[in-house]
Amino acid sequence: MSPEHFVTLFDRRFLPQGLALHESLRRWAPDARLWVVCMDAPTETALRRLALDGVVLIPLRELETPALLAVKGGRTTGEYCWTLTPFVFPAVFDRDPSVSRVTYLDADLFFFADPKVLLEELDRSEKSVLVTEHAYDPVYDVSARFGRFCVQFLTFDRTEPARRILDRWRSQCLEWCYGREDSPGRFGDQMYLDEWPGRFGEFVHVLKRTDATLAPWNVKYFSRRGRLVPVFYHFHGFRILSRGRALLYSWFRIGKEGRRFYDVYLEALRRKIADMERVGAALEPIPLPTHWGTVVFRWINRLRGKIEFSRL
After folding, report:
1. If we measure between CA atoms, which residue out of 42, 213, 86, 216 comes closest to residue 16?
2. Residue 244 to residues 46, 240, 273, 285, 312: CA-CA distances in angstroms?
3. Where are the domains of the chain?
4. How many CA atoms lie within 13 A of 139 on its CB side?
5. In the β-sheet with 149-157, what is the strand arrangement from edge to edge?
6. Burial, 56: exposed, middle or buried (Cβ in 10 Å; 0-12, 13-18, 19+)?
7. The domain 5-214: what is its CATH number?
8. Which residues contact 11 (CB under 8 A, 6 or more apart)?
9. Nearest one of 227, 270, 220, 279 to 246, comparing CA atoms
């Protein structure tokens, strides 16, 4: 059986998270190959020094087309990462003709079980593309603003129908891929996916195991059904603030059951930061906004139990 192929992208600010993702994937799918689009030179240098098993590097310069370079200057780093997402699939297919399908992973995912559970559901559907819903807790449902689907775990195979969907998405992201909310029906790269079940339903499978794809916006909701055993947890909003401090989550109540996933993640990040230091890779913290209104709002939500900081 051929190995599964996954692809992610990140820069030096998310290097610890990317390394943790790799560690968790190797634990549960040791034969898998993880392709990493290195968004900057320090990331590429660190990963080459670490020489991780099962990792193939794609430097950003090898991925950028004239069309991408033409829009790069008008987009933030995050927006440009979103713009790039539809381009990572053909980047893998073009480099290895033996690859039959590729699954994109957000760098802040962490596996708690083998992802084959999700991919086997795609196999049973006999379709070409797998999408995952946000599966919001009704209390936090903002799908009207950010979309029904989350790009977090997204699979395309090498078939012609999948290529057509991918080509359309790529054109859409080149035309418009921003984090602002002044264009109803669009947000970053992900609201484009909302049309896929209706427009391409013959080829697109919507994952049914939403309880296996957890995140801050749904972990407390699913925990009411019993002990959670997710395939992955999406550590959305997690930020390393300094060598010894991290922001775990923002704007959500995750409950005691959800909190245990963060303890596992923190331990993994400590190991990965130590690995980085061993090869001379600098940690790049992401500071919090300091605008007074944001600070006040943050403290209010901290009192409400919707924000938590931790030692790292």
Report:
1. 42
2. 21, 8, 11, 10, 5
3. 5-214
4. 12
5. 55-59, 33-38, 5-10, 101-105, 149-157, 129-133, 204-206
6. middle
7. 3.90.550.10
8. 38, 39, 40, 42, 43, 77
9. 270
Nearest 5°: CA angle at 250, between 186 and 8?
A: 60
Spatial contact of 131 and 207, defined as CB atoms under 8 Å apart: yes
pLDDT tens digits along 71-125: 999 999 999 999 999 999 999 999 999 999 999 999 999 999 999 999 999 999 9
Matching residue, tokens 């057509």: 164
Q: Measure CA 242 to chain center.
A: 22
**Which has the closest alpha carbon to 14: 287, 240, 264?**
240
Going by C-alpha positions, the residue among 70, 62, 67 that lies closest to residue 39 is 62
User: Could you identify the residue written with the tokens 């006040």?
Assistant: 296
Question: Cβ(210)–Cβ(133) under 8 Å?
Answer: yes
